[in-house]
Amino acid sequence: MIIRLLAGTAAGMMLLSGVAYAEPVSGAPELTNNALYKAPKLPSVGCELTKGTSAASTKKYVTRLVGCLNKVWEPAIKDFQPVKVIFKEADDKRSCSTGLDVSASFSEICDTEIRVRLANDWIKAKSDLKVFTSIVRTWSGVVTGQSGIGEAWWSMQNDASESQMSQQNRRYYLQLDCFMGVSAKAVTRVVKDWKPTIGTKDFWESYLKNKYSGKPVNRLYWLQQGYKAGKPGACNTWKAPDSKVA
Predict the structure, then answer these.
(1) CB 3.0–4.6 Å: which of 51, 119, 182, 201 could bond 61 by disulfide?
(2) Are 129 and 200 in contact (CB under 8 A)?
(3) Residues 96-127, buried b or exposed e (16+ Cβ, 10 A)?
């Protein structure tokens, strides 16, 4: 089951009962010792992605990418449930997660689906960077949801200090970056420089104003970690030293 993570309010719902606030996290095996980290390297899938500048070609691109992500992640997650992509009507700007209207293109998890709103910023773009980044970033939420990581993070209590709570949120969002790197490797996307990726704000980053993204140097570190290893075990941000999650 995909856990819908309302990131805008998650900062006030921190640590699991009994979890130590010491950094790195302790006493939360669903975070620090999740079975996902033992999964082997994800299989590579030749995911041929060609994005034209029409709504039809962009829908085809997104559908193909989500299909590839279903295929490569299925062996890594116990009881994996394939995820469908649903395209919103053109005049439907409402985000299910925030309740806000968003005029630009975006993707998000709603219940057990990835829902996508297409607008001209994705459709007319010759580069696929924005759409690829958004879909793969959203997919990282599928991974944390179906592995139990998202539920454990969501269940955290709010009696830590603000700085500690912020760090735990950064651990979560930096892990999403790392899973992005794993996904990109598995769908055989060639990435030589991740800087354009972190410079492309998706819907959530714009909504949160990068509050929990982490420093650019650490975002690059975790993206590269996931991409280089090609397996989720490289993405255990919960055991990482403070310097890597600042």
Answers:
(1) 51
(2) yes
(3) ebbeeebeebbbbbeebbbbbbbbeebbeeee
Whether 3 is in a domain gets the answer no
The predicted structure's pLDDT at residue 75: 97
Helix 216-229 with 162-186: angle, nearest 10 deg:
40
- β-strand partners of 101: 94
Q: Structural domain tally of the chain?
A: 1
Cβ 11 vs Cβ 165: under 8 Å: yes
Residue 18 lies in a domain: no
CB contact at 8 A, 184 and 45: no
Asked whether residue 231 is domain-assigned, the answer is yes
Inside any domain, residue 16 = no
Instruction: Please state, in angstroms and rounded to a whole number, the distance separating the CA atoms of residues 70 and 48.
Output: 15
- Mean pLDDT, consecutive 10-residue stretches, the chain (246 aa), reads 36 36 72 96 94 97 98 97 95 88 92 94 96 96 96 75 83 96 97 90 64 90 98 97 93
In the prediction, which pLDDT does 97 show?
82
- Structural domain including 184 reads 49-245
The DSSP call for residue 83 is -
Chain-centroid distance of CA 11 in Å reads: 17
Determine the Cα–Cα distance for residues 244 and 246; give it in Å rounded to an integer. Answer: 6
